[in-house]
Amino acid sequence: MHPRNRHAARYDFPQLIAANPEFASFLTHTPTGEETVDFTDPAAVKALNKALLKQFYGVQHWDIPAGYLCPPIPGRADYIHHAADLLAKVNGGEAPRGKAVHVLDIGVGANCVYPILGTREYNWRFVGADIDPVAIRAAKHMVAANPALTGRIDLRLQKHATDIFEGIVKPREEFDLTVCNPPFHASAAEAAASNQRKNRNLGHAQSLEPSPNFGGKNTELWYEGGEEAFVRLMVEQSVPLASRVLWFTSLISKKETLPSAYHFLKQAGALDVQTIGMNQGQKVSRLVAWTFQDEAQQQAWRTRRWK
């Protein structure tokens, strides 16, 4: 994991139980007698997230509606820290901190995890966008319940499913960074099959629930054409914002998507493309980042916005 990731060590279960006492009921044991968590149980994953967010980030009130995506916190933290390193490259090697840094989360979800982590780790300001009104309402309620987050996270509903930035980014608004965890399955059937594989890998022959262990509504899990189609759309729609966004980024779950993504970025005229590998246990993913600004423009951006 990233060296600044707070979750590189094994979970400290006594501390997590102290943070969220309900988590104790979800602990189980491995065949060798070690304490662990049943990651096929959505309720257990949710209780773990509550404990992690409270213990490490001071988020006292966190919840999501039933069936919505409950993401793994360590992996999401890795994304935020690697994205911060992109900004550090133009800032003397130090990740910029404070309210001057403005970040857009595409597909913020009801969990609002990326804005939580970025706000608490780096004191950044966020805009979170989503096409699901229930997710936006839930995220707004959660932000309002935590004084440390209020006034730092602006949540906006995307009213057009084919638009990513249009209708969200206001006229003359600028962002230092965009983050996105796109839906990477091409259909509901593909998402269900992936869930079955995960459960088999975790030692469960069959899932007891139709939804994945980390939950997720259709818009969170799959998109027609899969993540390749979504990333292509995002790249195409990033071009008009070339001078108003420093770094665009997206999680890429499938390595098979990378060649197409590089092709789309070349066609779009991206001047710099970075691919950052991320490993959390058995899960391997990567962060792809691109900018349309050359080194001189990036330095001018830093001087104008962060000084």
Automatic annotation (TrEMBL):
GO terms for biological process: rRNA base methylation. Coiled coil: none annotated. Keywords: Cytoplasm, Methyltransferase, rRNA processing, S-adenosyl-L-methionine, Transferase. Gene3D superfamilies: Vaccinia Virus protein VP39. It is found in: Cytoplasm. It is an enzyme of class 2 (transferase). Residues 190-213 are annotated as: Disordered. InterPro entries: METTL16/RlmF (IPR010286), rRNA_lsu_MeTfrase_F (IPR016909), SAM-dependent_MTases_sf (IPR029063). SUPFAM superfamilies: S-adenosyl-L-methionine-dependent methyltransferases (SSF53335). The keyword Transport does not apply. One of its GO terms (cellular component) is cytoplasm. Pfam families: Methyltransf_10 (PF05971). Its EC number is 2.1.1.181. One of its GO terms (molecular function) is 23S rRNA (adenine(1618)-N(6))-methyltransferase activity. It catalyses: adenosine(1618) in 23S rRNA + S-adenosyl-L-methionine = N(6)-methyladenosine(1618) in 23S rRNA + S-adenosyl-L-homocysteine + H(+). It comes from the Bacteria. Its main location: cytoplasm. HAMAP family: 23SrRNA_methyltr_F. Belongs to the methyltransferase superfamily. METTL16/RlmF family. Specifically methylates the adenine in position 1618 of 23S rRNA. This is Ribosomal RNA large subunit methyltransferase F. It comes from Hymenobacter telluris.
